[in-house]
Amino acid sequence: YDPAIERTVIEVFMLSKLFKHLATRLTNENNLSDLTWAVAETNPVFLETFMEALKFQEFKTGEPAEIMREVQTGDSRPDFMVKQGGKCFVIENKIWDRQHHFEQYATTFPDAAKALISAYKLSSQEQERANKNGFRYVTWREMVGLLEDKLSQGLFDDGGIVAAYTQFVKEVCTIMELKQVRLEDGVRCLHAFTRLAAWVFTEGFTKEGFTCTNYNPPRAFGECWAGQYGELTSSQNKPPLYLFLGMEFSIDKDRPAIVVWIEEDWNNQIYQNFSEPAYPKSLFDYKKDKNNGFLEFKLNDNAFAAFFSKSLEEQKQFLLDFFNAVVDEVTLHY
Asked: What is the pTM of this model?
């Protein structure tokens, strides 16, 4: 028994708990950027890891570097600017905001290496814009993965600061550990599925002309349903759509159903105009439930069985394909 080791374990645990609590209050991009800057100023190894994740091959490990917040240059003020010798690196952080400043920063900082880090995946169109304007691009999930890999190797000798910071990022950016959804896991199956549904909204969906966010994330369970709501926004300034992706279950059914619901109260125009799917229904069955006021798209029996036969990565793609198919249908009436 070593009291010093026990004390260190307790301190790291308490620090991580502190940062997780902070994440419930400090939820916007400025908060995340401020904390990232503070950790990078505190721990040079963290700064090197940050730059490695952002794919800055020009950055040299072991050499002095300075990281700054919101340096005003003309009409531009990027979240981070890193200087090392004669090299300049410009970094933009996004959680849910989609204003990426690609063209603006390419003009203001023509000689700087540039990167975007975001909590969501870019659409193929936005990735093309990023490439055209000289931006590297990574997600916060990728950053967390690299940090956790280095933490497992014991590369941060900082009393648990980076470990706690990683917990903060996971909370703020809704980065959850995803697991295969298995019916035999009982209640844990619902937990795994609701996380997968949140992934569809926050990271999986990249349909051109639309953005999708996890709407009111705590609302994940009801008496006979479990899942997540997504808010779908059009680039054409149309009213947002609200869709539920989840599992429906009851004691009088042999198994749960995987569904997308579009409720009349939130989507009256779609509800009134939609009659029958226009595309072949290889994945789902459809009905308009006039008693409860919603459109229901339900994975059919074959698709349901196929979903549970797949690996985690295959399940992610399968659920995303199902959601995309529903969006393709309803946006015809949008």
From this structure: 0.71
